[in-house]
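Q: My labmate handed me this sequence with no annotations at all. I'd like to see what the chain might look like in three dimensions before we decide whether it's worth expressing. Could you predict it?
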Amino acid sequence: MNENREKLRVGVLQEGKYYLHAGLLNVRHIDRIDGKNVYWTDRFGSGRCTKETFIRNCIYEATRIEIEELGPNFADERSCFPESLLQERFPDGFTMRDEANALTAFAFRNGFLEDLHSGIHSDLLDQPSFSRITDLEMKELMIEASRKLAALLAMREQDPEAYRRLIQGYNILYCRAWER
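A: Here is what I predict for the chain of 180 residues:
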């Protein structure tokens, strides 16, 4: 990776471009930008987040080589991480807890919840008796999470190997610091 690359800013995001994820193991393609929202696809599926969240998660525009090696071609075998990385990450095997962490990250963490979380802190949030999420936000969160989980469950039934690659890859990318 070229360390001299300029980091992304909100104003430079473009539909149709590819961006390198901060973990340096994934590339996201911007399918559409609608107002403050970015709709993207990577090798593990698609998602939506604010421009600010996208910039926090994707640090550079991807090079041609990064796109070829890490790009959003989910059906390709390259979407599976090398066995050595899997063994390093999961020395005792991929556990049910590892799977649960990946499902949680996929369905909840990397979606609308991230948008809710990405705002600025308010002292009102320190008051446990105050509501922190509106009924409409809760509804959107649950609908999105259910839709994502339904898609994963369908994949698990229709293509167990693709499901395994997706879940293990998602855990590697997003759950490294989570309790196992």
